[in-house]
Structure of HAD hydrolase-like protein:
Amino acid sequence: MGMRGATHIVWDWNGTLFHDNQAIIGATNAAFAELGIPAITLERYRELYCVPVPKFYERLIGRLPTDEEWEVMDAIFHRYYLEHRVGCGLTDGVPGLLAGWVSAGRSQSILSMYGHEELVPLVRGFGIEPHFLRVDGRTGPSGGSKAEHMVRHLRALTGVDPARTVVIGDAADDAIAARHVGAKAVLYTGGSHSRASLEGVGVPVVDTLAEAVTLAEWLAA
């Protein structure tokens, strides 16, 4: 249950709490090699990445993939991602930030577009699950926006006021999802988007999660 009147944080997972940039680019390029698409650098990925993800592929190959092509691309990416994520860990400082937020009498949760069945054991394996009221991953097809998932996520959180909620993530879609439910957002530059692409979204942009937490408290005050 949320603390009534207290600020609630909805955390993104990939590229935010979970520092998986190298797994993302490694899996992307492994999938590209299988599909006959030239490899890209992490910097180029961060410049081009967008949601819905098929639009990202359009930027790369000059056209939208068909539904059948997208299903193949998505399956290949996730197969390689499972191999590459093994060497990844939490973003620096995350355990202390999560524990500090809870000890101050505030609440937090995770909403990710990573598959729910994969997300929950991964979070649990880092020993941080008790810090969250709820951990929700994507159910249904991948590649879409987080906005409707955010609606369902907040509805499931008793005592959490969207107006006192701040979404912290690394993608423009996190800010769009926050706006969709009447919440605030702070975007972090350490994940899937470049600072330049995030600064055009119209919400605060920070370089560390510690800054994001400090801003969250101020934004929802």
